[in-house]
Amino acid sequence: MPTRNILYIVIAALAVSLGIVGYNLYEAKKEPKGLQINIGPNGLHVKDK
After folding, report:
1. What kind and span of H or E run contains 38?
2. What is the mean pLDDT of residues 2-25?
3. CA distance linking residue 9 with residue 5, whole number of Å
């Protein structure tokens, strides 16, 4: 039965790593907090986030 325990450990490690990757992708897509300053043809725009 030791092979079954190794299988459970591998599945748990994959689940944890998938959660970490998902969280990192979520954080990368999230807009940063603070001020956003845009300069364009319509002038200067400042947004508070």
Report:
1. strand 35-40
2. 95
3. 6
Q: Residue 35 has what DSSP assignment? A: E
Both structure tokens of 7 = 């299988």
User: What string of DSSP letters covers the chain?
Assistant: -HHHHHHHHHHHHHHHHHHHHHHHHHHHHSPPSSEEEEEETTEEEEEE-
Phi, psi (deg, nearest 5) at residue 13: -65, -40
In the chain, domain spans? 2-48
Predicted confidence at residue 1, as pLDDT, reads 64
Check whether 15 has a pLDDT greater than 90: yes
Predicted TM-score (pTM) above 0.70: no
